[in-house]
Amino acid sequence: MYIAGTKLLETYTVPPLLPHQVLAIGVTSYNGMLYLGVNADREAMRDLDVPPSLLRESLDELLEAAQRVAPALRWAMSKGGKRSGEKSTRKIPKDVSEPNFSAFKPNS
């Protein structure tokens, strides 16, 4: 995707807080990456450090599960439910690598 002739490299969502809402988490995917945006009402939610740490823990669990099943999934998708001799056109990444959570830090 290009914006004003410049390639878009990353995109982060900024989810709005609706009335009486204390936490909003938005997720977008672009160019093979997953981006998270967290917005919270600091006055209504005193333990703002908890949701990001729980989210990180859950993403680590998801990554671990993906790494365990990736070989079997890759094999199953190579079969793709096609007729004998045909291969699926869908792709599974060859390497389910470590995510970069460096940008996922709550603001102080």
Topology, please?
Blueprint: E1 2-3, E2 6-7, E3 23-30, E4 33-40, H1 50-79
Antiparallel strand pairs: 1-2, 3-4
Shape: flat
Amount of helix: 25-40%
Count of helices? 1
- What distance lies between the first and last C-alpha atoms, to the nearest angstrom? 32 Å
Low-confidence stretches: none
Q: How does the helix and strand content classify structurally?
A: alpha+beta
**Residues in β-strands, percent:** 15-25%
Account of the protein in words:
With 108 residues, this protein is an alpha+beta fold. The chain has two domains: 1-48, no CATH class; 53-108, no CATH class. It has one helix spanning 50-79; strands at residues 2-3, 6-7, 23-30, 33-40. The strands form two sheets. The chain has a two-stranded antiparallel ribbon. A hairpin with a 2-residue loop joins strand 1 (2-3) and strand 2. 1% of the residues are buried.
Write a brief structural summary.
This protein is of the alpha+beta class and 108 residues long. The chain contains one helix and four strands.
